[in-house]
TrEMBL record:
Name listed for the protein in its UniProt record: GlxA family transcriptional regulator
Domain (HTH araC/xylS-type) ranges: 223-321
UniProt keyword annotations, A-Z: DNA-binding, Transcription, Transcription regulation
Alphabetical list of PROSITE patterns matching this protein: HTH_ARAC_FAMILY_1, HTH_ARAC_FAMILY_2
Keyword Transcription: yes
Length: 335
């Protein structure tokens, strides 16, 4: 719904910056709102820091601030709370948490990016609410703040006037949703196309690299098995075949997977095959039967079932979403 009315002033976006903040958590949303201004939006963005001084981001880049936190007296339409790699230290910073609370009181909508959700939770602003954060940190958010209902697969979550998003670039998704709310779907689509990003991503965070999530095994025999699956997903990777490759019993290889990888052998193989299929769909034009065969699924139907079960989209929808900016589509999403 378009909440902007002719004659009203610009919508104010306040972004909190602090030492160690992740740069893209700050600049991603700012780019969305700045781009929206090129297509009829009216946003005014201001960066604030505790003392008004510049901060050094986790990337080592210096980031200037426009105001001190205590100089923000007018209400803002959107407050952006970014995250940082050292979130465990940040949530113990009482001065920073006080700044989050103070700014939140003046915000019509408060939105966090990535581990910024930890700051909101530590400030008591997510109690009893649903929330999202980077998939790598979802379990920690749930454990440290049991009053928060963590949605581990969500790209972003809105609960009342609080919004939380997944890792880093998901702040762009969240900001696009706000542009659509403020300015309408047409403006949001124009911004998405201009930035060459999705209007709405297919699936959730589960679509992102299983190999980057799997721990490095301490067991050489298991490393051989993991590498063999990753290097040749279409090969025979039944439980008995993996046990023979490792030189141990079926029971022993199953136990190693539970202890070292945190899942079953069959589940791991399917995840690796799914990742391989995603790459082929993103980068090539092979028919589904070829993709299924080359990634070990065997048939297009088995491939389709795995995609729907794990990612919530069909292989065809996944390919379309990752290979078009959505030009000419009438729907808001690019899936």
């Amino acid at each position: 719904m378009n909440h902007k009315r002719p004659g009203t002033g610009p919508l104010t976006v306040t972004v909190l910056a602090f030492p160690g903040v992740r740069l893209l958590d700050v600049t991603g949303p700012i780019e969305v709102f700045a781009s929206a201004n090129e297509f009829g939006g009216r946003y005014r963005v201001q960066i604030v820091s505790e003392d008004g001084a510049e901060v050094i981001t986790s990337a080592g880049t210096r980031l200037s601030a426009d105001l001190r936190v205590d100089e923000v007296r007018e209400p803002c339409d959107v407050l952006v709370i970014p995250g940082g790699p050292e979130w465990e230290t940040l949530i113990k910073d009482d001065v920073l948490l006080d700044a989050v609370r103070l700014l939140n009181e003046k915000a019509r909508c408060t939105a966090s990016v990535c581990t910024g959700a930890f700051l909101l939770a530590a400030a008591g602003l997510l109690d009893g609410r649903r929330a999202a954060t980077h998939w790598r940190n979802s379990q920690q958010l749930a454990l440290r703040f049991p009053s928060v209902e963590v949605q581990p697969d969500a790209i972003f979550v809105r609960d009342g006037r609080m919004m939380t998003s997944a890792g880093v670039s998901a702040g762009i998704d969240l900001s696009l949703a706000l542009v659509e709310e403020h300015c309408g779907a047409e403006v949001a689509r124009a911004v998405a196309k201009d930035m060459v990003v999705f209007m709405q991503r297919p699936g959730g965070q589960s679509q992102f690299s299983v190999r980057s999530r799997a721990p490095h095994s301490r067991q050489e025999m298991l490393r051989r098995v993991l590498d063999a699956v990753a290097e040749n997903p279409e090969a025979n990777h039944t439980l008995s075949a993996m046990a023979r490759r490792a030189g141990v019993s079926v029971r022993h290889v199953t136990r190693l997977f539970y202890e070292e990888v945190g899942t079953t052998p069959a589940r791991y193989v399917e995840q690796i095959r799914l990742e391989a299929a995603q790459v082929l769909l993103e980068t090539g034009d092979d028919p589904m039967a070829v993709v299924a065969r080359r990634t070990g699924f065997g048939s297009p139907e088995s491939l389709r079932r795995a995609f729907v079960r794990q990612l919530g989209v069909t292989p065809g929808a996944f390919r379309a979403s990752f290979r078009t900016t959505g030009v000419g589509r009438s729907q808001a999403g690019s899936a």
